[in-house]
Amino acid sequence: MPVGLRRWLIAISAVAGTDLYAITQTNVGIALPHMQGAFSAAPDQVAWLVTSFVVGTTIMTVLSGWLAARFGRRELFLCAILGFTIATVACGASTSLEEAVFWRTMQGVLGAPLLPLGQAITIDAFPQEQQGLATSFWAIGAMVGTIFGVLVGGLLVEHASWPWIFWVNVPIGILVLLGAWLFVPRVPRDPGRHLDVLGVLALVVGIGAVQLVFNRGERLDWFDSGEIAVEAAVAGLALFVFVVHSATTRRPFLPPALFANRNFLVGQAMIFIYGALVFLPLFILPLLLQQIGGYAETDIGRFLAPRGVGFVASLMIVGPLMSRLDPRLVYVAGLLALVASSWGLAFGTQAIDPWTVTWTSFVQGIGAGVSFVPVSVMAFATIEQRLRTEGLAVFHLILNLGTTVGVAAIFNVLARDMQANRAVLSHFINPYNKALGFGGASGLWDTGDRGGLAALNAEVGRQAAVIAYNDTFFLIGLVALAAMPLCLLLKPVRGGR
After folding, report:
1. Does the global pTM surpass 0.85?
2. Which of 124, 287, 367, 469 has the most C-beta neighbours closer than 10 Å?
3. CA 188 from chain center: how many Å?
4. pLDDT tens-digit profile of 165-174?
5. Residues 28 and 137 in one domain
6. Does 295 lie in the same domain as 238?
7. Same-domain check for residues 175 and 206
């Protein structure tokens, strides 16, 4: 077990590898409109720059545990840093959409191990009683990379050009590679580790198809699209083959000991719900502030910045204290913060209050940070160290899947709620409604004038959207509340012991 400065150098090197991935994961969203123009692509075509990265990450996340055991965790970490950096340079040099999509896929494939391996290396650098501190340190580092990616990405796109959001990672990648080579220790590997080829193929195809269904379903109108129907059928068949094969083969791809552990199994359900909930405000709030509030991008960034502050602050407080606390109570406290922040936004009007958005964003960050640490601690408290890397690969796979499902589900709910609200509100629009004749409304919303009808239609759309956003935030809080009893299924642990 490393001690003193050596321990922190190992942890910093591992977190830096995670940051390398996080920076590119977040800053691409800022450059998408510019890349769309550069490649003369339609909106659904440029969306593949996001989808391909997600699918590539999913495929390699599944294999990260086996590759680390077979070839060595340090060796895989170094190869992932080098490969990700090269793929990132190639993304910036792409001259066509097809080329960019290919290299984005390779970014996902080559960079995926940086998440589970970065967390595993960080945790293993600390003794068992400091697992909460280690998890918090890793999560803070990942959040710093996310914030850095957004801020620097915006500056580079505005003052340089979109390729620089990729090329900025070159010096960072070189430094991270040097740090990992110097400080990340080797761990025993298993050169004869068996690979269940059928199990791997079935799981990769199944999870990849699921990701495509949820990433493209809303855009293609779900099962009215032949593509989505085929992908859903492939996903169902592949996952069925994986489950049946894993239950009947003598040496399945994922160690049965992982899923025989109750805490680990319940932890996967908890991290799925975590992924499905905590990232939703990052997608919904910018739309609400833009479409309803009419705020500029700089204002939106200022309103959302407190979320990162709350996340980091909560991890700095909770991490060192986890050895003295019951993780189940900490988990409930984190979800209560998510409920409070969501319901704080569930009663808004068109006159969006900046203070409400600011304090709820801060509390969202607190809830996200406070609930992440205990889930990680409880899921791995009773797992043998030899299974930790594979367990973390599954952990991050389920987290990504939860985020994909949550985002797809909430946008589906939001769109349908807007339509339903518009239909209900439209029933009140008729020449006999006296409310339309009061005050300034009589001139602005004249139902006998084409301009008045257009203004009235726009107002109905805004009101329908406000109600839909309110319903959506209320639903997020309700799901967070319903997830609390999951902690009762866990065996009691304290601080990871």
Report:
1. no
2. 367
3. 31
4. 888 888 989 9
5. yes
6. no
7. no
